[in-house]
Amino acid sequence: MRGNLGGILLMALLLAAGPTVRAQQEQGEGSLLSDASVAVTFNAERGKVVDSGCGCFWLLGPGADFGLNFHHGIGAAAAIYEEQTVNLSSGESLNKISYLFGPRYTWSPSTRLGGALRSGTIFGEALFGGVHGYNGAFPSGGSVASSATAFALQAGGGFDLRVKSGLGLRLVEADYVYSQLPNNGSGAQNDFRIASGVSWHFR
Known about the structure:
- The chain is α+β, with helices and mostly antiparallel strands.
- The protein folds into two domains: 1-32; 34-201, Beta Barrel (Porin), CATH 2.40.160.
- 15% of the residues lie in helices and 58% in strands.
- The chain has one helix at residues 2-32; strands spanning 35-48, 56-69, 74-85, 94-107, 120-134, 138-140, 143-145, 148-164, 167-179, 189-201.
């Protein structure tokens, strides 16, 4: 009888502790990933024709980025966007696709703040990857190719405002963009990119 009572008490303790253990496990599992997001943006990148007074032009096009926010705002992001221009001073056109990945830090302002800041997040990132240019002129080594692929990096950040049920607005994103497409000069581009669009947050 005593053995049966001990078994019953042990079973009762296990049943009572089960929900608490599961809740702690779920909390522990959930604490690793605090947010996942996707943003779709319209991008404008300011470029420059090499060895010209300005020769500046705009590359325009759509983009998307994917973000994971882990513990204490530390996370990662991946971005891809396609841009084009048809107003180069030489009369040429240019298309390019950029694909990048790297660390992102996200900061949520204190709930003590009011207005838009209370439901917004600010992020900064440094992304590394490549760029593929095509439908253009890429001079290198005495020849000119219509396409080229090179290293690229992007450093900057932006502000997301959550609206309702995970839906949000990327009010602004501003980035420095560096790439190494052949240009019959330094072989480098130093551009400025701005973007805005919509975002979805899944946690």
